[in-house]
Amino acid sequence: MTDYDVIVLGGGTMGMASAWELAKRGRRALVLEQFDFIHDRGAHSGQTRIFRHAYAEGADYIPIVMRADRLWQDLEAETRTKVLHRVGALEMAAPDHLARSSSQGECDTIQYRLSMAHTC
After folding, report:
1. How far does CA 59 lie from the centroid of its chain?
2. What is the pLDDT of residue 64?
3. What distance in Å separates the CA atoms of residue 68 and residue 21, rounded to the nearest whole number?
């Protein structure tokens, strides 16, 4: 009989990331997934994903997403597999979004270029 320190329910993106982090910390994890490990029934299915560093919800998300970004880079380095293909993005927001983001400190940690619409 095999003993585990942790049982992870769900082998999607979050479950597998949790099990990987536990293993890096020396913990034995068992991942239980009801479907095959590659399937089209989860939030991780499909061909593309967007990985945003800026969130309208506030600056509290920035440290979390920046750590997640570093962890994806660690995964690429450890597995010698390119996972993220950075292509940039265009995000449109309400006129007062930048002012709200600036007051929350979001613009202090994220590189961005601001383009304003011109009116005739």
Report:
1. 15
2. 86
3. 12
* Mean predicted confidence (pLDDT) in 104-118: 63
Supply the DSSP symbol for 108.
G
- For residue 72 the two structure tokens come to 């994806």
Taking the C-alpha atoms of residue 53 and residue 69, their distance in angstroms, rounded to an integer, is 9
- How far, in Å, CA of 81 to CA of 120, rounded? 49
Give yes or no for a contact between 16 and 30, defined as CB atoms under 8 angstroms apart: no
19 Cβ contact list (under 8 Å, min separation 6)? 6, 8, 11, 29, 31
* pTM for this prediction: 0.64
Confidence of residue 6 (pLDDT cuts 50, 70, 90): very high
Residue 113 Cα distances to 54, 89, 92, 119, 120, angstroms = 12, 11, 12, 19, 23
Which whole number is the average pLDDT over 61-90? 87
Contact 52, 112 (CB under 8 A): no
Task: Extract the runs of DSSP E, i.e. beta strands, from 17-100.
Answer: 29-32
Identify the bridge partners of residue 30 per DSSP, sorted by sequence position.
7
Beta carbons of 18 and 29 less than 8 angstroms apart: yes
